[in-house]
Amino acid sequence: MSNAETVLKPMVVSPAREDARPFFDTVHDWIVTVDHKKLGLMYIGYGILFLVIGGIEATIMRIQLAIPNNHFVSPQTFNQLFTMHGTTMVFLVGMPLLFGFANYFVPLMIGARDMAFPRLNAFSFWMSALGGLILYFSFIGGSGLYGAGSAPDVGWFAYAPLTAQAFSPGHSTDYWIIGLLVSGIGSIGTALNIVTTALCMRCPGMTLGRMPLFVWLNLVMSAMVLIVISPLTAAQIMLLIDRYLGGHFFDTQAGGSAVIWMHFFWIFGHPEVYVLIIPGFAFVSEIIPVFSRKPIFGYAIMVAATLSIGFLSLGVWAHHMFTIGMTSYANAFFTASTMAVGVPTGIKIFNWLGTMWGGKIRFTIPMMFCIGFLFQFLIAGLTGIMLSASPFDWQLGNSYFVVAHFHYVLIGGLVFTIFAALYYWYPKVTGRMWNETLGKWHFWLFLIGFHLTFDFMHIPGVLGMPRRIYTYEAGRGWEIWNLIISLGVIFQIIGILFWVVNFLWSYFKGKPAGNDPWDAWTLEWATTSPPPDYNFAKIPAVRSRRPLWDLKHPEDPDWKYE
Amino acid sequence: MKPCSRIRLLTCGAFAWAFVGVAKLAFASSTTSPDIPSIFSPASTPADSIYRLSLFVLAICGAIFLVVFSLLVYSVVKFRQRPSDDGREPPQIYGSNQMELAWTVIPVLIVVVLFLATARVIHAVEDARFPAGTMEITAVGHQFWWEFQYPEQGFITANEVHVPVSDAKHPTPTHITLLSADTDHSFWVPKLAGKTDLIPNRTNSMWIDPHETGVYVGQCAQYCGTQHAKMLLQVIVESREDFDRWIAGQRQPVQHVDSVARGRQVFETTACVNCHTVSGTNANGKFGPDLTHLMSRETIAAGAALNTRESLKLWVKDPEAIKPGSLMPAMQLDEHDLDAVTDYLLSLR
């Protein structure tokens, strides 16, 4: 009898639901908690809250752009909307949601009882929350003594010198700087925690080579956060010095350099895209094997590909700056390094394909989102290759083609994997199963809406429509495309409503899910749904990458082959 | 295959076909229209080199897409769990080094080919040499308009830049030096060249050699503030004769017309002169567009309005009505002075 069996078998205990306690005691519990699962859920809740806010901002922009010369919002409002939309989606939606999943599942998957530093964990979450609050307080306090509130309107990459006092009086830009500085501290804390947890808290038998890919990818993501948040933080402090202490780092009117800001921002900004998408890969790398009924194809290569994506992504930042007049050598270098990222990314797609190949694919909702992801990420990768050819980027850069490309990555790629993950782990977290029919409505409506909006968004870019314009002239061939793009939003919103209704309804009325509804293989499915405090009464021990497979198939365990 | 799944497949196929068909049709019709600044109808060497590269990149990406897409569709259809499934787990395959090697080496080769093709175009466009007789123009980006200086000819205009057509036998390309007076901007006329940014404290440049006469539209492509959207741009490509005639016109000193003396007096005694130049008068401000030959331009406010009496008058009276957030202040003139100034502006031919 293997070690895993002795430990895992007694774990079947009845689900522990919140017992009847006074409401304020429950709230107090959540506020002072240092439990990784509660903090994980709070991160996810926080991300979803801002996802709705960022979505509303996007919807207002799409109403404004549906027809040419529209007057739905003023130019200033539109500029604030795209600034807040971008900043929100990257800093207050993407990272918190993904940190939430890492927080909840990294300890469970490695058989640990909590994160390495539970108090740092709570501190980091509340710092992130404070950062979001500060950013959004700008709507009230942004103009300070100058007048009524106004959100920042400098774009999410806040290019100098638009952020200098001369062009951005008042305090809206300060709210942008300080909000992100504060949430950046939270991000660094959580990243440190995830790295330490993955490296030091694994249960007996779980070598690095047996760690689930989910944990590996979150480890790489967190290491990247530690590297890339620092230049952003440094640049933001320099910008504050420019604004208040008479520094001239980026203040071009006093001889500063606008280009230096771009370098600082994108050495953060480009790896940040991988910080967001690598956890998406992590979800897919767990979900596709389970619903194909096969182990991940090429585990070691997947880890190597992730590491090389992480490494290469630190050397591609200036592909955001192909139009600033770099020398032909610099343009050629960043073209080459950017195209090189395509290789490990392609390897990943082929390995997921290899995992499905020869399997028995079950079309559950999480798997449908994963398959959607594969198709869409393929296209996003190919438009990325087009943009990496710098002359092509001289035309496409800063046009709607770029907007379509990165929304393809972040919605067609990341958001689809996040929905897959939400559906996949919902039964584990709540102990209840969602409704399949509502889930299918959500998937198909969102898929149609996504394609209407973002497939057609490539076209106005090719026809010369730059991004960040609050309105456009009729007669340039952009009208019909913009109308279709805006109509797609309706489908997306209805799809999201199906999801909200489904998850709320199922929380109260859903069928009990059981501990292991998917017949899955990683350790989180060995404990109860929802998992008890401290996860495991006895720390489990494992002998392979799929401890529950070994348990269910004693005649043919993985450890014989790995 | 069961009939119901065949119907489903057919429906999907029909939808996909209709989708592609509509997209193609609309795309084809819109790219051929002359007013649409499509990157796929180049009219100048830099845009043309990029266009050819883009076709090559698109072809390779299209081929990759077809292969991977087909493999994905095949595996999803072929390896789906059937209703008749026996419930046994499929063979557990952990990987294959041969396969991994194949799908590492092939993409590496593709990347090398793409890179070499791209590097050629980078070099051809960025490191081009210019023949004698190349036009020199300096473009200065302002919030939210374009200043165009013709240093050799000694005049300045705004928003509508005239350049000579360049024929293959006697090429007369135009070399544009790009500067900024305030924030970042980007010069983008898709049919003529890729975009290049105008960045304060930095000198950039680009070049065009339009093969055909005509008006080419574009606009600022780097977010520069409130009215980034209405920082439009026209490149007017003219035959050599028309271009020389235009140059001669721009070099003329301003014509004084007695009937608008009152308007000129209002113009020269109010804040107009702080920002605008009318050469040969005491108006020599540099913050706003040069108005010496204002009426030779089709539009005002960087393309936000047509250059007519009505819009000029409205622009002087209340710029916010045309271009909210523009840096031109409302001049607070009474109706009489407003008409006089408008008449004066109309005399600046």
Query: CATH superfamily assignment of the largest domain in chain B?
Result: Cupredoxins -  blue copper proteins
Low-confidence parts of chain B: none
The poorly predicted ranges of chain A are 1-7, 9-16
- CATH overall fold name of the largest domain in chain B: Immunoglobulin-like
Strand content of chain A: under 5%
Give the CATH superfamily of chain A: Cytochrome c oxidase-like, subunit I domain
CATH architecture of the largest domain in chain B: Sandwich
Q: Which oligomerization state do the chains in this entry correspond to? A: heterodimer
- What's the gyration radius of chain A in Å? 24 Å
For the record, what CATH class of the largest domain in chain B applies?
Mainly Beta
DSSP strand (E) fraction of chain B? Answer: 15-25%
Give a topology summary:
The complex is a heterodimer of chains A (562) and B (349).
Chain A: H1 3-8, H2 23-32, H3 36-65, H4 75-109, H5 118-141, H6 172-200, H7 213-244, H8 258-292, H9 299-312, H10 328-356, H11 365-388, H12 390-396, H13 400-430, H14 436-456, H15 458-462, H16 479-509, H17 547-552
Chain B: H1 3-32, H2 45-78, H3 97-126, E1 135-142, E2 145-150, E3 155-158, E4 160-164, E5 174-180, E6 185-187, E7 196-198, E8 204-208, E9 214-219, E10 232-238, H4 240-251, H5 261-269, H6 272-275, E11 299-300, E12 305-306, H7 309-317, H8 319-322, H9 335-346
Parallel strand pairs in B: 1-5, 4-10
Antiparallel strand pairs in B: 1-2, 2-3, 5-8, 6-7, 9-10, 11-12
Helix pairs in contact in B: 2-3, 5-9, 7-9
Summarize this, please?
Chain A contains 17 helices and no strands. With 562 residues, chain A is mainly α. Chain B is α+β, with helices and mostly antiparallel strands and 349 residues long.
Write up this protein:
The complex is a heterodimer of chains A (562) and B (349). Chain A is mainly alpha-helical. Chain A has one domain: Cytochrome C Oxidase, Chain A. Chain A is built from 17 helices and no strands. The longest helix of chain A is centred in the first third of the chain and has 35 residues, at 75-109. The two termini of chain A are 19 Å apart. Mean pLDDT of chain A is 93; it is low at 1-7 and 9-16. Chain B contains nine helices and twelve strands. In chain B, strand 1 and strand 2 (145-150) form a beta hairpin. Chain B has a five-stranded mixed beta sheet. Chain B has a three-stranded mixed beta sheet with strand order 4-10-9. In chain B, strands 6-7 form a two-stranded antiparallel ribbon. The mean pLDDT of chain B is 91. Chain B has two domains: 33-78 and 96-251, Cupredoxins -  blue copper proteins (Immunoglobulin-like, Sandwich); 258-346, Cupredoxins -  blue copper proteins (Immunoglobulin-like, Sandwich), CATH 2.60.40. Chain B is α+β, with helices and mostly antiparallel strands and 349 residues long. Chains A and B meet through helix 4, helix 8, helix 9, helix 10 and helix 11 of A and helix 1, helix 2, helix 3 and strand 9 of B.
